[in-house]
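Weekly structure sync - notes
Attendees: PM, LS, DV (DV joined late)
Agenda: review two folding runs queued last week.

Item 1: First target. Sequence and structure tokens pasted below for the record.
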Amino acid sequence: MDQQAISSAAIALLAGLAGLAAPAGCTAETAPGESPEVRGAREPVGALDPYEHSVSRFGVVPLHAGFSPDPRVVGGTALGEVSAGSIHRKCKGWISETPDYLLDADTAFLRLHVLARSRSDVLLVVRKPGGAVLCNDNRSGTKDPMIRSDFPIGSTQVWIGVREAGATADYRLGFSEVKWNSSSIPLPDLD
């Protein structure tokens, strides 16, 4: 074996050993500018992602910087089919197997507000294109979950969940670039 082949074999062996020594599991990470009420994490590198090619239950919300009307509001019914922990271990509650909506951003957002409103206590789970997962079940002082974060170009998966397995809840989901109150979004039965 020549010197170059020996060096290549040694590098491959060391890389394999380093992979064995790396800790397994998710690591919690909060994206810059996120409020403390938002929990985020990245999935471990190389982990299988059962939601990677999921279609959405209610459609795609296309957004670009400066979109109008603001807030953009859509609606649906949350389903408690699978544990929200299947997206990330820190997410609590139950969500549908398929994302409720796909946020399709053709420009990056430095700060975008995502808020859900319902007569029921619902939770919000988003998974950004790079794999970061953000969960929120209550915005301070309300039962309306909200996530404020940067969002890159690409498709972000959005789930609205419920507290109990098998439960359902009608909701409205809003996206905004400006600071706004939950009262800016009508409750589902007041349209």
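Item 2: Second target, run right after the first with the same settings.
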Amino acid sequence: MTLGRSGGLTLAAVTLALTACTSAVTAAPGPAGLADVTVAAVPSADSAGLFIALYDGLFARQGLRVRFVPAVSSETVINEQALNLPARAPVEISCGNYVSYIQAQQAWDEGRRPGAGRPPAVAADLDLFAEGSVMAPSVQGLYVLPGSPVRSLAALQGGTIGVNAPGNILYLLAASALTEHGVPVSRVRFRYIPLPAMAAALRAGRVSAAVLPEPFGTAAGESLGVVLVADLDQGAMTSFPVQGCAATRQWAAAHPGTLAAFRRAFEAGQRIADTSRPAVEAAMERLPAPLGVSKVTAAMMALPVYPVGPVDQVRIQRVADVMRQFLGFPPFTVGPMLAGT
């Protein structure tokens, strides 16, 4: 494969990857009876700290055997965490975008539960225990094909933008940029396409533009020569917190030793990611086929900031406040979600 040379993965390949990705390291259970943990994350540069901890054996040193499950979007795994059905190989921990976590917590607080309704509500009682990434220039962008008449956000009125899920972080980034440039969100259509398939959708003309995080933006540039219309690290979204890691409160309360060990290893991975670009590149290249990136993509992709230390409540509250501004989300305080940090 590689992501960069394929110009977009097929849905079949993504489905195969969702069932086949595991850590290459093994470890004996630690002193607290630690053993297997399944963690889901979108295979983007925002998750590099996680991947370093996985492939450099940092989890193994904490007595954990971590199985990585690639996620199409955070929404696709939050309910799996909340339902916690052993027959469905449940996800214990996910690393995903804060927008989806806040939406799921607000739904839970209102009394909605996963698996109820059609479509089922995305709802979970969450412990947001670690920060994963903060946006930096060129890490999240809006792209078009070379030769496209679209060369500005204003030109997208009446067009279609591809994002990986409704109402999530990529949608919010696009909505903010459009609004700040005088384009009503109602004048743009959104189509929901998994990130590995987005470049192919752009090439096929299914969307006018696509919101792509790294490494998907650089990979699409390598394969299709896509053009950046807007760097989404701008305006209200400058240095915006993008991703964190969460477990359900029920799971966290039942497995405090496992969660503490995971946090220690993840924090070590974050420190490496924030100080060693070569380590990030190597981890992104080592993702299992067909998700790993080429050496060219790894060397060229922009990287976010990888925070370390306790979750910054002020920073995460910013997400809820921007959601209210651009999504009409009700007032929401993130503090109770961070009680376990």
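Discussion on item 2: The longest strand covers residues 126-134.
Action: LS to circulate a short write-up before next sync.
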